[in-house]
Amino acid sequence: MTEPRVRSDPAFALLGLYETALPEVYGYLLSRCGDRTLAEELTSETFLGAVAACRKEYAPPVSTGWLIGVARHKLADHWRRKEREERGLRLVHHSEPDVDDPWDEQLDALRARQVLDSLGPHHRAALTLRYVDGLGVPEVAGHLGRSVHATEALLVRARAAFRRTYQEKEGRDA
């Protein structure tokens, strides 16, 4: 009689990577959301999601780059949830008008970060994925669960909101 084979848990592959990947994943999230508590929560969600993904039949190879991709999805999910919450609040008030105004000036990095942090999550998500992460519009649309056309319109509104807030802040700081 043969003894049954015990299959090792594929999530153990994460253990060897955990110590080196944790600061990378946390740093990635913190640099994009600017909130330590949120970055810690999303880092935790990233590793929990990675464990679940590793246990699937056709699990991808585990690497720090893959974990950063999982983190990007967790951050986009967070922004989508936050946008849904704020969308309900905006229904009570009038929404922002659409403004198409290209802007090619140099930005002060600190002021730009503060402005980005002050924007709504839908604008912050779109601008971060597009300009900080360097994703194309179709990729941004995929992360945000929107059509390409809707994402292009969102980016137009997000850039207008960013520019307006940046210039208002510039006027107050001068």
If you had to describe this structure to a student in words, what would you say it looks like?
This protein is mainly α and 174 residues long. The chain is 71% helix and 0% strand. The protein is built from seven helices and no strands. α2 crosses α3 (64-90) and α4 crosses α7.
The total count of helices amounts to 7
| Largest sheet properties | none
Give the number of DSSP strands.
0
Assembly level: single chain
Q: What is the gyration radius calculated from CA atoms?
A: 20 Å
- By secondary-structure content and strand pairing, the structural class works out as mainly alpha
Low-confidence stretches: 100-105
Distance between the termini: 83 Å
Strand content: under 5%
Helix content: over 70%
Shape: elongated
Write the element-wise H/E pattern from the N-terminal end onward. Answer: HHHHHHH
Mean pLDDT: 81
